[in-house]
Amino acid sequence: MNIHKTLHNINWALFASVIGFAGVGLYILNMPDQSLPDMWQHQSGFVIAGMLGFVFFCFVPLNYVRQASWPLYAVALFLMVLIWRIGWKFDLGLLHLQPTEIAEWALILVLARYFATRDALGWKGVPIPLCLLECL
Fold first, then answer.
1. Which of 1, 32, 86, 117 has its CA at 20 to 30 Å from residue 128's CA atom?
2. CB of 36 within 8 A of CB of 29?
C-alpha cells in the first residue's frame, strides 16, 4: 500500500470542513450558559471516534470493505437479536456504542454492495433492499 497515494487521494477540504464544524459544535457546547456543561466532553468522544474511523477507512482497501459487508451484516443481526432478548450495549468509556449503530453501518455497506452489482434495477430490485431493511 502506498501511503503517499492514499494521502493524496483524501479530500482535504472536506476533512477540514468536518473538523471545523465539529470544533464549532464543541465550542458551543462548552459555552458557560449551556444547561449541559459536560456534554462537550461526551461529544468529543464521538468526534475522536469519527476521526479514527476516517483514518482507518482511508487506509483499508475497498475490496476488503466490500468482502466484509455481509459478515458485518450477519454480526449486526446477531447483536440486534441479542439486544432484543437481553438488552445490551458496549461501554467504551466516553463512548457508549449500541448494536443499532453497528447495524446502521452494516446496512449501508450491504446496500452499497448490492446496488453496485446491479445495472439499472428499476422496481424489480426494490424487494431485496426492503427485506434487508426490515431484518434490522
1. 86
2. yes
